[in-house]
Amino acid sequence: MSAGLLTFDDIPIGRKHRIERTMTAAEVDTFGYLSGDLNPLHMDDEFARRTPFGRRVVHGLLTGALVSTTHTRLTGPGFAYVGQELKFLGPVFIGDKVSVEVTVVGKKDAKRILILDTVVTKQTGDKVLAGLSALKELRIG
Length: 141
Hints:
It is a single chain. By secondary structure, the chain is of the alpha+beta class. The chain has a domain at 8-22 and 59-137: Hotdog Thioesterase (Thiol Ester Dehydrase, Chain A). Helices cover 26% and strands 35% of the residues. The chain has a five-stranded antiparallel β-sheet, with helices on one face. It is elongated, with a radius of gyration of 17 Å.
C-alpha cells in the first residue's frame, strides 16, 4: 500500500465514524438535476405541500450518498464501495440535520472486505435509514 493509506489490517472491528449535515434546498435541487430524479415530491414546494408529507422530501439516495462520504472518512481512499443494503425508515426534509454513523461489524479476510453497519438519524433522534455496507480494500501500486 502507498504510504499513509490505511489497510484492511489497520481497521479493527468496532471502528466507527460519524458525520452531520443539514440538508439544503440547493443540495436537493442539484441532486435532482444531476440524477435526473425530478419527482415533484423532491423538487416542487406546491406539489409536496399537497402530499401526506406536507413539504419537500430529500431524495433517499441523497441521504444514502452521505453514507459513502462517511465510509471514506472512516477508511481513507484505499477502499471501494462494493455493496449496500438500504432501508428507508422515514422522510428527511429540507432543513433537517442528519447524523450518519458507520461501524465496522465484520471482516471477510479472504476477499479483504469490511462489513459496516449504517445508521442515519435526524435531529429528532428518529432513524431514517439503516443497513449494511461492504467496502473492499484496493490494490494500489
